[in-house]
Amino acid sequence: MYLAIDIGGTKTLIALFSKRGRVLKRVKFKTAQGYKKFTADLSLHLEDFRKRKVKAVVVAIPGVVQKNYSATLGNRNWGKINLSDSIKSLFDCPIFFENDANLAAIYESYKLRGKTIFLTFSTGIGGGIAENGKILPESSKFEPGHKIYEYKGKKAEWEDIAASSALEKFYHVDIATDLRGKAIYQDIAARVALGLPDIIKKYHPDTIVLGGPLGKIFKLYSKYLPKLDVKYVRPKRPLESVIYGCYIFGKNQK
C-alpha cells in the first residue's frame, strides 16, 4: 500500500492507496496556521494508518522541497521545516517529499501526448511541467503564480488575480466552485488568460491542464479562454490530482 499526504493552504488530505491505485481510506483536516499545531494534527491523523503495511509515504508540499526532507511552504510563514522525523516515527518505509503541482502534473500528464503543463488555481497558483507522467527539469523553477500582471487598472501577482482564493474574496463566496453566471465566467477566463501567453511562449506545451477548484468548473468558463496554440484540458480529478500523483510517484520509486 502507498500513503499520500497532500498539505494544502486550507486543508490537508491523507489517502491510503492499494497496490493497484484504489483509495482504501482517506482523512481530511484543516491545515492549521501554526506549525506546532499542524504537526500535532498530522501525527494524530496518521495514527489511524500506522498499522497498515505501507510501502512508501509521499508528501505533497505547496512550496520548495530540499534534500527529500525539508521544505518551505509557500502559503505559511513557517520558514524551513522538517516533517520527516515525525513521519518516520510512525512508518518504517521510504518517505518522499515533492512539490504538489509537480505531483499533480505527473498524474494529469499520464497518457497525454507531448509536453503537459499543469496549473492549479487554489489558495495560490502553482504549476508543474511533465511529459507522460515524468517531471521535466524546467519544472523545478516554474513558479507562475508570482508573475506580475495588470488587471482592471491594478498590478498584482497572477495568483492574487486568478487563484480560487482571490475569486472567492472578490465575489464574496465561500468556494469558487459556487460561482455562476456568464459575466462571471468571462471574468474568470480573462483572469486565467493573463499568464497563459507567457507560459506558452517560454515552455511550448502541447497541453495545459487547469486544475484546483477552477478545474471543477472548467467547462463553464473555458469556452471564453483565448484561442492559443495549445490544448486546454479539464483535469481527470480536479480536486485530487495531487494525491493520485503521490500514488504514481511512490509506486515508481525503486
Describe this entry's structure for a reader.
The strands form four sheets. The chain has a five-stranded mixed beta sheet, sandwiched between helices. The chain has a five-stranded mixed beta sheet with strand order 11-10-9-14-15. Strands 5-6-7 form a three-stranded antiparallel beta sheet, with no helix packed on it. The protein contains ten helices and 15 strands. The chain folds into two domains: 2-102, 2-Layer Sandwich (Nucleotidyltransferase, domain 5); 111-233, Nucleotidyltransferase, domain 5 (2-Layer Sandwich). The two termini are 15 Å apart. With 254 residues, the protein is of the alpha/beta class. Strand 12 (148-151) and strand 13 (154-157) form a beta hairpin.
Task: Pick out its properties.
Nucleotidyltransferase, domain 5; 254 residues; 2 domains; alpha/beta; five-stranded mixed β-sheet; 10 helices
